[in-house]
Amino acid sequence: MKGVCRIMKIVLCYKEYELGELEKKDEYIFTPVPGSELAKQKYIVPRASMLLSGGTKKSNKLFSEFAYFFKLLDNPYIRSEANVVSGDDEFTNLTKIARLRLDKGSFYLKIRY
User: Fold this and answer.
1) What pairing do the DSSP bridges indicate for beta strands 17-24 and 57-59?
2) How far apart are the C-alpha atoms of 35 and 79, rounded to whole Å?
3) Strands 57-59 and 107-112
4) What is the pLDDT along the chain (113 residues), one digit of tens a residue?
5) Residue 112 in contact with residue 19, Cβ under 8 Å?
6) C-alpha distances in Å from residue 39, one per residue of 46, 47, 52, 66, 70
7) What residues contact 63, with CB distance under 8 A and at least 6 apart?
8) Which of 21, 13, 77, 7 is nearest to 39 (CA)?
């Protein structure tokens, strides 16, 4: 796909549902995806309820729902598997976490182009 700029997005998921997409431009932009309402109807999703209400959200600071995943990097094995190095920015670290095969029984991340 020569000459095409693909924007990477990090998808916040809960169990079998995609909740929304995070992208980084000049700021963080979170956009709920169609179907996220089904997750809210089927499950209580308190950690993401603020993020899922009211449409697209923008912030200069990473949303706490995503910052939560940095706790995984306290585990040296996960940090090593993710290939996290000092100097990586938050969005890069999230993409590395999203590439891991982690438990999908609760919240998890995946990548979309």
Assistant:
1) unpaired
2) 32
3) unpaired
4) 454 556 899 999 999 999 999 999 999 999 999 888 888 888 877 778 888 888 999 999 999 999 999 999 999 999 999 999 989 999 999 999 999 988 888 899 999 98
5) no
6) 11, 13, 10, 18, 24
7) 22, 28, 30, 51, 57
8) 13
Question: 95 near 8, Cβ under 8 Å?
Answer: yes
Compute the distance between CA of residue 52 and CA of residue 70 in angstroms, rounded to an integer.
Answer: 20
Checking phi first, is residue 27 left (phi over 0); if not, alpha (psi -120 to 50) or beta?
A: beta
- Three-state helix/strand/coil letters over the chain: CCCCCCCCEEEEEECCEEEEEEEECCCEEEEECCCHHHHHHHCCCHHHHHHHCCCCEEECCCCHHHHHHHHHHHCHHHHHHHCCCCCCCHHHHHHHHHCCCCCCCCEEEEEEC
Q: Amino acid identity of 12?
A: L
Determine whether 110 is exposed, middle or buried from the number of CB atoms within 10 Å of its CB (0-12, 13-18, 19+): middle
